[in-house]
């Protein structure tokens, strides 16, 4: 039985990746900073949860040996420059080292659409710049830029646009906000996205591990859905699909940049994860859609699913089918 360690396996995408991997016969190990975060996946057969912080290099070096492959899904959306660098750049560096030392043969790294390992400095946000630097670190290792001169591992980098699914924090959050508020003041209203289904992203991870030819490593794949929407369209659609406002949704009006910045600062003061931060606004200066310069999901044999029928299902079901039970019933 092949063994794999999935960093970030407790998260939104990670739970779907883990479920697919165990179904494909992999023995999966998931490190987490807090075991309770693994509640949705710990019942899966052949899945082991390890309580450790992957940023702790010594702990990572102990956890990686014995695995044939590694998936990295660890990322943050908000934080300081230091936090972005620690999570998106320093961690990939530690992963590259741990995989080289342990002889791990395959790495799948989930990055983000808009990242560009060749020119990180040109990108508008800390999120995209550090995602790009993290890609560059892993690509150098995969191209044999290390001391050995040999490729350390086969590398696939997935760059998804915004990801939707029953547990997403995007479409669900916009629907939730519109259940509460009668109007929606919206930052970045004209920014364009190409939403991709979480099941398609998880399938892509598995196909990279099982189907990709070593000759094409390192490979970059843009994981996008079949349609492009502005943020305003997505917000309106989330409310309409959830039946809010009699199925018409709420009035959505675009905030000018200065007002969006004030809104982001105020959200940053509230406890918990902000819906929108200054850095998110910076990210939205560039459209989050396929560049057409890299292969897409079709190159992995995946026909990307459309947003509306799937989002309608989970927005309407009002969390009745939440969690892994819901994921199961939809994927059968
Ligand atoms: N969701 C999207 O719309 C979207 C769009 C584009 C790209 N992506 C990329 O897809 C990947 C997965 O995203 P996701 O939405 O599944 O993320 P998520 O739900 O936020 O999960 C992130 C995971 O990373 C771990 N993690 C977070 N911060 C960490 C830190 N500082 N140190 C160590 N571990 C940390 C968490 O593990 P523990 O808390 O259990 O330790 C968690 O399991 C990420 O690379 C993300 O950038 C996501």
TrEMBL record:
Q: Output the Gene3D superfamilies linked to this UniProt entry.
A: NAD(P)-binding Rossmann-like Domain (3.40.50.720)
Database matches in CDD domains: NDUFA9_like_SDR_a
Q: Which InterPro entries is this protein grouped with?
A: ComplexI_NDUFA9_subunit (IPR051207), Epimerase_deHydtase (IPR001509), NAD(P)-bd_dom_sf (IPR036291)
Q: Which domain of life is it from?
A: Bacteria
What GO molecular function annotation could you give as one example from this UniProt entry?
A: protein-containing complex binding
Domain (NAD-dependent epimerase/dehydratase): give its ranges. 4-219
Coiled-coil-forming residues are none
Protein name per its UniProtKB record: NAD-dependent dehydratase
Q: Which species is this record about?
A: Rhodoferax ferrireducens
- List the taxonomic lineage: Bacteria, Pseudomonadati, Pseudomonadota, Betaproteobacteria, Burkholderiales
């Amino acid at each position: 039985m092949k063994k794999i360690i999935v960093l970030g396996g407790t998260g939104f995408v990670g739970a779907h990746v883990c479920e697919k991997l165990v179904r494909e016969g992999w023995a999966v190990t998931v490190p987490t900073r807090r075991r309770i975060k693994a509640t949705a996946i710990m019942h899966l057969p052949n899945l082991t949860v390890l309580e450790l912080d992957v940023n702790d290099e010594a702990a990572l070096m102990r956890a990686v040996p014995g695995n044939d492959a590694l998936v990295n899904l660890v990322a943050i959306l908000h934080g300081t420059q230091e936090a972005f660098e620690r999570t998106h750049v320093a961690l990939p560096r530690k992963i590259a080292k741990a995989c080289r030392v342990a002889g791990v043969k395959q790495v799948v790294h989930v990055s983000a659409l808009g990242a560009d390992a060749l020119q990180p400095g040109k990108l508008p946000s800390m999120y995209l710049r550090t995602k790009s630097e993290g890609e560059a670190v892993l690509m150098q290792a995969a191209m044999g830029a290390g001391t050995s001169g040999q490729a350390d591992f086969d590398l696939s980098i997935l760059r998804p646009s915004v990801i939707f699914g029953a547990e997403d924090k995007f479409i669900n959050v916009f629907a939730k906000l519109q259940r509460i508020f009668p109007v929606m003041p919206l930052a970045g209203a004209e920014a364009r996205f190409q939403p991709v289904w979480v099941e398609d992203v998880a399938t892509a991870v598995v196909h990279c591990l099982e189907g990709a030819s070593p000759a094409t490593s390192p490979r970059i794949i843009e994981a996008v859905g079949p349609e492009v929407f502005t943020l305003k369209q997505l917000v309106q659609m989330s409310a309409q699909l959830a039946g809010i406002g009699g199925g018409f949704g709420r009035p959505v009006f675009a905030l000018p940049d200065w007002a969006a910045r004030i809104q982001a600062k105020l959200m940053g003061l509230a406890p918990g994860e902000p819906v929108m931060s200054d850095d998110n606004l910076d990210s939205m200066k560039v459209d989050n859609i396929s560049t057409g310069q890299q292969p897409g999901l079709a190159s992995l044999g995946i026909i990307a699913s459309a947003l509306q029928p799937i989002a309608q299902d989970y927005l309407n079901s009002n969390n009745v089918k939440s969690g892994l039970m819901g994921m199961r019933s939809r994927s059968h």
